[in-house]
Structures are given as structure tokens and as C-alpha cells.
Amino acid sequence: MKHLMSPLDFSVDELDRILDLANDMENHPQKYAHACAGKKLATLFYEPSTRTRLSFEAAMLNLGGSVLGFSSADSSSAAKGESVSDTIRVISCYADICAMRHPKEGAPMVAAAKSSIPVINAGDGGHQHPTQTLTDLLTIRTLKGRLNDLTIGLCGDLKFGRTVHSLIHALVRYPNVRFVLISPDELRIPDYIKENVLDKNNVPYKEVERLEEALPELDLLYMTRVQKERFFNEEDYVRMKDFYILDKKKMELAPDDMLVLHPLPRVNEISVEVDSDPRAVYFKQAQFGVYVRMALILTLLGIKVEE
Ligand code: CP
Predict the structure, then answer these.
(1) Which residues of 96-128 are buried (b: 16+ CB within 10 A; e: fewer)?
(2) pTM (2 decimals)?
(3) 44, β-bridge pairs
(4) Angstrom distance (rounded) from CA 63 to CA 30
(5) Residue 51 designated active-site
(6) 154-175: per-residue pLDDT in tens?
(7) Which of 64, 108, 110, 166 is at 20 to 30 A from 153, Cα to Cα?
């Protein structure tokens, strides 16, 4: 039985197979419409979510399976003090696979240790968000045609943004990838990622504060929201929240083939006027999230669909 805690739980070859499967699911949805008949997915969300929880549920329904779960800690017995370990033992009796989001780093790993069904980390605190990374990789590979030879700008809250942390872990495994880390001083990427991931893999990167300076050299711009829920005080959040706003004028500085991604939700960091720019692919990215989660569910359940 395999769980998914980090994007590194899959080799590059395994990831390629999941992305190939997701592309096939997009092109031939009927072929997979009953692949999970009789199977149940539990979504255990101790933290708010729109895309991750509902795209997991849509994915399982698209595969002919069923879904159950809770969307907040308050509506589960966590509110009465039940531990994650006890909860997963019980959920293992009810479902075949589960996706868990939790505000505490490592909580899905604690669950996996006690689970008798595959556990998928659907975001743990400021740590990792591996299924967002699968979504991002599928979006980039499908729309850009490659995962190598890319200059990627990561912009915004690089300190608390778990999507950025997971994406860096995944992309350093592809040749000739370099990063431009765009953030205010207070929201810079944590040192452990610079030392243990970027430096260790000899991946070139630079840190800049001005988005305008970075834009002309980028193949991809990955915008992120300032993570209000991870700040210790409101004052710091208010000071930081509008540090970057990507608008039409800034987009004029970017190459014609640069893609703009964002894991969403967006707050103010991308002006709505950018949505109609063909380079803005963040809503397509959300759609890719359904296909890749379908592919992940089939892979973790070990279900093969014949040609
Ligand atoms: N991208 C993402 O994780 O969105 P949600 O928080 O809405 O799930």
C-alpha cells in the first residue's frame, strides 16, 4: 500500500506515468467512467478548501466511485478531542482511500502510520501540498510541452506557501531548471529549502524583491497568495498582503509565451484584468487538478483500465 505525503514519494518515471494517465483521462473520460465503481474516497479536511476537496470529490465521482467526509474540524469528532490516529483507524473501516488536509505539519504522516487504506496529503500546514504539485506539473507539461529547460519565477509568500515548497522539491529533478525567487525580505523561502533542496541539487536560483525585474526572463510565473492563516499577527499580514499585484501593465514586461500559474485562491495578487490574457492559465490549472487526482486515485488503488 502506498501513501502520498510528498511529491518525492513518486520517482520521475512514476510521475510521468501519472501525468500520462491524467492526459488520457482528459481525452477519453468515458474509458474511466466506472473504474472505481464500488470504491469510496473519504475527504478529511480539518482546514478550509474549495479546489482540493471538491476536485478530489469530482475526481472520484468521475471514476464512478462514491465520496464521504467532513469539511472542517468543527464538524468532526476532532472538536471533541479525537486524535488523527484514532480517526484514521475508524475511516479505514468506511472507505478505500482518503485525502487529508490538516493545519499541523506532519498530521497526514501520523495518519498514514495507523491507516490500512492509502492516505493522500492534501496540504499540511506550511509544509507540503503534493497534489497541488501534481496539478502544477500536469499544467506545465501539457501547456508548455516540457518540464525541463525552464526559468520559473515563484512570487509572493515563499515562506509559508506550501505549494511553492512542494513544487521546488519536484522540479529540481528535471534538467536545466532555474528559479527566480521573488518575495519581500520577510517572506523569503526558508533556509532549509535553499540548503537541502536547491543547493544540494546544484540548482541555480536568485532572490529578488521586484517582480518587474524578474518578469522579462521567465518561462513561467507562479504567483501565490500571502498566507493570512499562518501569520502570528494581523498587522504583519496587512502590511504584506498587497506587496505584489500582477496587472496588465506588468504583463507587458513578460515574454509572449510566459505562462502565469496560481494555485488559487487568489486575493489581490493578480488583478482580474489579467484573467483575459491568454498567458493566464490558473483556471485551466484548476481543471487539470481533477484529471491528475483521478489518475492518482487509480494509481494508489492499483486499478488498471484496459485499452
Ligand atoms: N489550491 C488549493 O489548495 O486550493 P484550496 O485551498 O481551495 O483547496
Answers:
(1) bbbbbbbeeeebbbbbbeebebbbbbbbbbbbb
(2) 0.95
(3) 70, 100
(4) 9
(5) yes
(6) 999 999 888 999 999 999 999 9
(7) 108
